[in-house]
Amino acid sequence: MSIFAVPGVQLLDVAGPLDVFAEANRQRAGRKPMYRFRVVSASPRPLTCSSGARLLPDATLEARGEKVDTLLVAGAPHAVETRLDGAAVAWLTASSKTARRYGSVCSGAFLLAQTGALDGRRVTTHWAVADQLQKTFPKLHVEPDAIYIRDGRVCTAAGVTAGMDLALALVEEDLGREVAMNVARELVMFFKRPGGQMPFSRRGHAEVSGRSALQESQRWIAGHLHADLSVAALAHRAGVSPRHFARMFRSELGVTPADYVESVRVDAARRLLEEGAHPPKQVADRCGFTNVNGLRRAFLRCVGITPAEYRKRYAATPPGA
Fold this sequence. Notes:
Elements: E1 2-4, H1 11-27, E2 38-41, E3 47-48, E4 54-55, E5 59-60, E6 70-73, H2 86-98, E7 101-105, H3 108-113, E8 122-123, H4 130-136, E9 141-142, E10 148-151, E11 154-157, H5 162-175, H6 177-187, H7 212-223, H8 231-238, H9 242-253, H10 257-275, H11 280-286, H12 292-302, H13 307-314
Parallel strand pairs: 1-2, 1-6, 2-5, 6-7, 7-11, 8-9
Antiparallel strand pairs: 3-4, 10-11
C-alpha cells in the first residue's frame, strides 16, 4: 500500500494507518505479510511534518515497478490551500485509476479531489473543513458527520485518528473480523467507534454575524436563554414583522431563527455538561429548555448523542466523582 504525503503532512495521518496494517501483518505470524508499505512524496528529501518531526519517503513520483494496491492521501494543516503541481496530479490520477482502492485521510481529501478521482463519490473529511471541501469541490457528496466512508473503490476518513478506523475496516475486509478485532485489541482502539464526528465538532456553535439589527438579536438570545425567543418576540424587539425577520435571518445567517436559538442553547448546555457538576435537569433549566426531554431531543439533533453520554465523555469531573 502507498501513502502520498506532502511537506507539512500530519504525521499521524501516515503513521496511524501504517501501524494498523503493520499489526495486521504481525497477527499473521508465520505467514507471508499481507501488506507492504511505501510513503510516496514528490521529493526524496525528508519531509518536515506539521509537528516538526521528519519523515523520510520510501519513493518518489518517478518510482516505477510497484503497482499500487491501496492508495491513501494523507492530510496536512495547510492542505485546504495547497495546489498540487502537474506531476503530483498525474501520479495520483494514474494510481487511483489502477489501484484496487484509493482514498484519503483527513484534509488529504482536498489534495485527492484535485485529480477528479472523488467526483460523484460520497466522501468525508475533518468536520472543521467539511463545508469548505463541499464548496471547493461541488461534484463531491461530503458527509461531515462520518468517521469514514467506503463508496465503491473510494475510502475516505475524517480527522487524523479516524485514519486508523478506516485502516481497521480495510483489514477486516481483507483478513476477516477476527484478525481485525485482534488488531483493535492490541492497539487499544475501538473495533467500531461509536457515533460520528458531531460530538467533537462545534458546528452548532453560533457566532454573531449579519447586519447590526440581527447582531443585536443574536446577543440578546445569548444573554436571555430563558426569555421568549420565538420569531414573533424577536421580530418585535427588532421592530420588524415576524415574516420579514425570519426571511432576513435566514438570508443573512443561513439558518432559521428557531435553529439558531436551539444551537445557542445546545452550545450553552455543552459547556455546562463539560464542567460536570450540573445534573441534566439543572442544565435544561439554565439553558432555556422546557424540560430534560427537550434538552435530550435538541442534543441528539445537534450533537448526535445524548447529554448523559456527552457528559460521560467530556466532563472535566466525571459524574459521581
